[in-house]
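Justification of computing resources. Each target in the renewal requires a structure prediction run like the one illustrated here; the chain below, 67 residues long, is used simply to show the kind of job we budget for.
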Amino acid sequence: MTYEVNTIFYIAGIGIIVAMIHTVLKQMGKEDWAHWVTLVGFIIVLYMVATFISDLFTEIKRTFLFK
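Resulting structure tokens:
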């Protein structure tokens, strides 16, 4: 369970790309698509964070239960 700083940059990169796409779509007048892109980006990042938290809890369980 060794996560590097690259995962933080990966999540930040996704956020920056989603923000740029959202801004472009909003400027084009397609606000509904812009909101969908933001929602999909949020779900992707949420899934990544949930995976990391699951790994963290597995590691904590393994450490304290000596399994």
